[in-house]
Amino acid sequence: MSDNPDRISFAGRLRNNFLTGLIICAPLAITIWLTFSFIRWADSWVKPYIPARYNPENYLNIAMPGLGMVIAILLITVIGFLGKNLIGRSIVSFGESVLHRMPLVRTVYKSLKQIFETVLKEQSTSFKKCGLIEFPSPGTWALVFISGDAKGEIAARLNDNGDELVSVFLAPTPVPTAGFLMFVPRSKIIMLDMTPEEGARLLISGGLLAPDYKPKVLQPTVVPKAVNPLPGT
C-alpha cells in the first residue's frame, strides 16, 4: 500500500514551516534570555551596595531591571576618567605595585590586564579585517581573521626575505572560538571587504550566510577637451 502523496506533501510543508519558525524564534529567544540573565547578574552584584536612600526602587515601589548595570557603567566610566589624570594614575600605580608583590595574585592580574588591553585598546587592529590564504594546500582557500603585523622574536627571525609577516587567526567551522594562530607573508593574503562579524557568520553557517558583495566600479578618467585658441592668436 503506497503512501498518499498529498499527506506526505502536507507533512513536509509542516516540517519546513516548523524549522523556519525555529530559525526565527530560537536566536531571538536565546538573545533575550542572555540579555536579561546578564542584567540580573549585574543587578545582583551592584544593588546590594546601593544605599537605601539612593535607591529609586524604594520610592517608586517598582522593580527597575538594569538599574545596577547602569550604575556600574557610570561608575566604570568615572573611574576611567579619573584614571587619566595625574592623581588617578598615581593611585592606580600604587595599587598595581601592591598587587605585584602578591605571588599568586600578580600572575592573575597581569594576565587579565594584558588580555583586556589587547582586546579593548583603541589603537589595536585586532580582528578588524578578513582575508583569504591558501590552506591546507595550494588552490584551496581558507577564511582568516587578520590580527596584525608579526612582532618581536617571530618577526626578527622570519622577516629575512623582506616580505612582512602578518599574524592571522584561522578559525574552524562551525565553532570559530578555537583555531590556529598562523604567520603568513603579506603577499600571500587576499584582503576582503567583509567585516569580521560577517566572516564569523559565514563560518558558523558553514558558508550558507554569505554577505552581500558589490564590486567597486572604477570611475572612468575624464580627460578635459583641448580649448580651441581664439582667432588671431
TrEMBL record:
Q: Does the keyword Translocase apply?
A: no
Top-rank taxon, per record: Bacteria
Q: Which InterPro entries match?
A: COV1-like
Q: Where are the membrane-spanning stretches? A: 21-42, 62-83
Keyword match Thylakoid: no
Keywords noted in UniProt? Membrane, Transmembrane, Transmembrane helix
Protein known as: Membrane protein
Native source organism of the sequence: Pseudorhizobium tarimense
